[in-house]
Specification:
With 580 residues, the protein is mostly helical. It is 73% helix and 0% strand. The protein has 25 helices and no strands.
Length: 580
């Protein structure tokens, strides 16, 4: 890093802070303004913000390590979530917007009633805001530390600071993020997300282009991969008998992970963006844009860099090496002065977009679902905003502590998936079946969490990730299903109030619908058909882009045809909306 590079990074940070100060007034009106932007976001801003939130400094490193160890097919570890994210487009985006909640856990006291609902809301709010959220921010900090380490920045700090000097630099950057996120709330987060995503994508494309230029193009890259015995890394689908990605684990990704995870119906930061949209149509469009950016556009520059790192840095693939470092090392190797600063700024942008979201999202639970609900229900709007800013400080402090105890981004990512597996089926069913109650959701959440933690004990031995998902999802179901039928259903007035507000489709609410004589807003059957066509279009388009990038023309033609069929199916299956 030369002085020009530092000027570029400093300029970016200054602009970001200026945006936060400029938007601080708009976020100070109250809880809805601070956490859901006054419900006035446009689809293109909300959708890009959703994509920016999942594009952090850890994701290029995570994908690089994943491809180095398991080949392109290893990306099904996160590609499998496309199935739940497509459900978000045609089924859950409109439902969440219609619910008009500030956080997803607020829905629990709309859907359920009494003390169990209150306990569920408080439990989920605390678990998501503190341990889960702080671990998530912590491993993003870990990834940023790896980038700083690879670039040789901040090697020494004052002796009175304990631990890793580079990690302290990341904590300082997190405090900077805290300042602008605390000033501007979700307004500042989504506004900066839009520019941060564009900058981060530009940086990823630049690194991939320089790496390919040095190697001699895609054809030469494929030849060199074959020379080092890694031609299998180019496979986009695993094969039975594969060692790198066991086929059973792949089937668990597609058959269990997406619906059993705690965000099967959207969840978390996505719900915050959807609730902030102007109306239901804008929420649906935002979900579509997120899916395109997240799956079709974003991953392939990272994958190209990961493949290049296999042949350029073979020492990272050896035992004791860290293949996740291949990405920042390629930056340092190829990028000229000035452009290096711009790409480092793009990494800072990716880091800030995720951390700012996690800070605001976690604070929304602390304020909306703990403080305002249980401690001070009569708190004035400005006091709630102040509490939101205080909660943000608390979350950053805990996340900084968590960052000092992690060492592998991929391992932490898989751990987060494991402990979040179990309640997904209940989260989906609660929208479409009146019989699901608060006890069932509580049982699913705690059983899944406990089973996943137990599966990591040494006594279990070396359990494959696919087996761990199956054990957790199955064990959780064996707990929550009996609990649901052994406990009383929700009161009729609670069910009727929820149906009036959300009006979901499907047969699960027929008895309530008949009693109220109120038709659903959407037809579940039609929406499921469109979801199927959308999944075909999205996954086909994602693989077709990969085929084009890597010169795999048969793959590109076949998957492109699947994508085209999905698009035609979407056009021909126009949704039938029921008025009233």
């Amino acid at each position: 890093m030369h002085s020009v590079d530092w000027v570029v990074v400093g300029t970016y940070l200054g602009i970001t802070l200026a945006v936060g100060v400029w938007l601080s007034r708009r976020a100070s009106g109250g809880l809805v303004d601070f956490f859901v932007s006054g419900r006035s976001l446009r689809w293109w801003l909300a959708g890009t913000s959703m994509a920016a939130t999942t594009f952090s400094v850890d994701t290029p490193l995570y994908v690089t390590g994943l491809v180095a160890r398991r080949g392109i097919a290893g990306n099904w570890e996160w590609w499998a979530f496309a199935l739940s994210h497509v459900l978000l487009i045609y089924i859950f985006a409109r439902l969440w917007r219609r619910a008009e909640v500030v956080t997803d856990v607020e829905l629990t006291e709309l859907r359920y009633g009494g003390r169990p609902a209150a306990v569920l809301r408080a439990s989920r709010a605390f678990i998501f805001a503190v341990p889960i959220n702080c671990i998530a921010i912590g491993y993003v900090m870990l990834a940023m530390r790896k980038v700083i380490e690879a670039l040789g920045l901040f090697g020494t700090l004052p002796i009175w600071l304990p631990g890793d000097a580079r990690l302290w630099a990341v904590v300082a950057l997190s405090i900077f993020v805290l300042v602008y996120a605390g000033l501007s709330g979700l307004w500042g987060v989504v506004a900066t997300d839009f520019f941060q995503f564009a900058l981060a994508m530009f940086g990823a494309i630049i690194v991939a282009a320089f790496a390919l230029q040095e190697i001699g193009g895609v054809v030469e890259l494929k030849r060199q991969l074959a020379e080092v015995g890694r031609a299998d890394a180019l496979r986009m689908m695993p094969r039975p008998g594969s060692v790198d990605l066991p086929f059973g684990t792949f089937l668990a990704y597609l058959g269990i992970q997406w619906w059993a995870f705690r965000r099967s119906d959207g969840g978390g930061e996505f719900v915050q963006r959807l609730s902030a949209c102007r109306d239901e149509r804008e929420a649906e469009r935002a979900a579509w844009l997120f899916n395109i950016l997240h799956y079709v556009v974003r991953a392939w520059p990272w994958i190209v860099v990961a493949l290049a790192s296999i042949v350029i840095f073979p020492e990272l693939m050896e035992p004791g090496g860290d293949p996740e470092l291949g990405y920042p090392l390629l930056m340092l190797r190829y990028l000229p002065v000035g452009l290096l600063g711009l790409v480092v700024a793009s990494f800072v942008a990716a880091f800030m977009s995720t951390v700012s979201t996690q800070i605001n999202w976690g604070a929304s639970y602390v304020v909306n679902d703990l403080y305002a609900r249980f401690i001070d229900p009569e708190a004035a709007p400005r006091k709630l905003v102040t509490m939101g800013r205080a909660a943000s400080v608390f979350i950053v402090a805990l996340a900084g502590a968590a960052a000092f105890y992690a060492d592998d981004v991929g391992k932490v990512f898989r751990f987060m998936i494991a402990i979040g597996t179990g309640p997904g089926a209940v989260l989906i069913l609660r929208w479409f079946w009146w019989r699901v109650n608060a006890w069932a959701e509580l049982a699913a959440m705690f059983a899944g969490f406990a089973i996943a933690l137990i599966s990591y004990l040494p006594a279990w031995g070396d359990v494959s990730f696919g087996a761990r998902l199956a054990i957790t999802a199955g064990g959780s179901a064996m707990v929550w299903i009996p609990v649901m039928f052994l406990t009383a259903p929700e009161k009729e007035e609670t069910l009727e109030a929820f149906y009036r507000r959300v009006r979901p489709g499907g047969p699960g609410w027929s008895r309530v619908r008949t009693r109220l004589d109120l038709q659903p807003v959407t037809r579940l059957g039609d929406d499921l058909i469109r979801t199927g066509w959308a999944a075909l279009a999205l996954i086909g388009g994602m693989l077709a882009v990969g085929g084009l990038v890597l010169g795999e023309w048969r793959t590109a033609l076949f998957t492109g045809a699947l994508a085209a069929a999905g698009i035609v199916g979407l056009v021909r299956s126009a949704p039938r909306r029921v008025d009233g």
